[in-house]
Specification:
By secondary structure, this protein is an all-alpha fold. It has 16 helices and no strands. Helix 5 packs antiparallel against helix 6 and helix 12 packs antiparallel against helix 13.
């Protein structure tokens, strides 16, 4: 669509990077479904009430209580005391969860590893270990770990979803698609899986299938800005600009802090020759994300269309500074400084 860049919003791990820079719409992936505290705390063994714990069970009970209250630091200390008295898989797992919440990812992996040495079929430990490995940039190892969780529980829809997102992250779209499809076989109304499968359909150019998945996601989750934004981008691709604008207006209403939504809506305004409105949206995107090269590039096109060559040149220069490789998407007269 002309020279404007727009982006599909894919929901990330329930992420992924949203710094897409292709000139056509690119879907944004859904965030990993797993929460920072993982699949949940293991149940503590029965313990009596005591101010000063003396048994492993009492330390575990206090640690779980502290963690639920948001005190991960003291929770880790109490899990460690319990492990010193009686190491077991659940306590190593719980300490791993607490360490994950503190951002101590390497230590969390070690705890999950200890839990799995004791209990190799601990699905939650395999799952959370995979999540943490991905966060550490070790996505291939994360996939192996999530696969172990799936082997232990083949009906875990969230595990398939997250493995699919890992696959997307390393460019294995076909494998990702298969996992999102499996998630939906297990849970047909899983919104994140619909959005991510729609992402895969979009990247394949299967507009009708993408539209169907995003539309169902909108129906199931009418407050989900990503679902509206992605459906709006499909309509943009199909040049159904009125429908695209309607969806993107709703997406912006639901999430006014996402710069990509403003870039996408601005691109639709540009396609409709509403260049003033387009420039305004790109300006909002730049305010929200000052290093967003596509927003500068698109605003440059809007200013160029309004014959404001001074502002156009400034924006194109900034876009080239941020992304020199996109020189071909800038009009030739603006590619060199004057």
């Amino acid at each position: 669509m002309r020279n404007f860049s727009c982006f599909l919003l894919a929901l990330a791990l329930v992420g992924c990077s949203r710094n897409e820079t292709a000139e056509d719409a690119q879907p944004d992936k859904q965030e990993f479904v797993v929460a920072e505290n993982g699949k949940g705390m293991a149940d503590p063994a029965d313990a009596g009430d005591t101010d000063e714990p003396k048994t492993a069970e009492a330390f575990i009970e206090r640690a779980n209580k502290l963690f639920k209250e948001g005190d991960a630091d003291n929770a880790v200390e109490n899990y460690s005391a319990a492990i010193a008295l009686k190491p077991d898989a659940k306590t190593f797992y719980n300490r791993g969860v607490a360490r994950t919440s503190r951002g101590e990812l390497d230590e969390a992996v070690k705890d999950y590893d200890e839990a799995l040495k004791i209990d190799t079929k601990n699905v939650a430990a395999w799952f959370n270990r995979g999540y943490v490995l991905h966060k550490l940039g070790k996505t291939a190892e994360g996939i192996e770990s999530i696969s172990k969780a799936i082997e232990a529980n083949p009906k875990d829809a969230v595990a398939y979803l997250n493995r699919g997102l890992f696959y997307l992250d390393i460019g294995l779209g076909d494998k990702a698609f298969d996992d999102f499809k499996k998630t939906l076989e297990l849970e047909p109304e899983h919104v994140e899986a619909l959005i991510n499968r729609g992402f895969c359909f979009y990247t394949r150019g299967d507009w009708d299938d993408a539209l169907r998945d995003f539309a169902k996601a909108v129906q199931l989750a009418p407050l989900n800005a990503t679902a509206y934004g992605n459906r709006g981008n499909v309509y943009t691709k199909l040049e159904k600009y009125d429908l695209a604008l309607k969806d993107l207006n709703e997406a912006v209403r639901l999430n006014s802090r996402d710069p990509q939504l403003f870039v996408n809506r601005g691109s639709v305004f540009g396609a409709l020759d509403k260049n003033k409105e387009a420039a305004e949206d790109f300006t909002v995107a730049i305010t929200l994300a000052p290093e967003f090269a596509a927003a500068y590039r698109n605003r440059g096109h809007a200013y160029h269309a309004m014959a404001d060559n001074v502002k156009a040149r400034a924006d194109f220069a900034k876009a080239l500074e941020l992304e020199p490789s996109f020189v071909e998407s800038i009009p030739e007269q603006y590619r060199t400084a004057k």
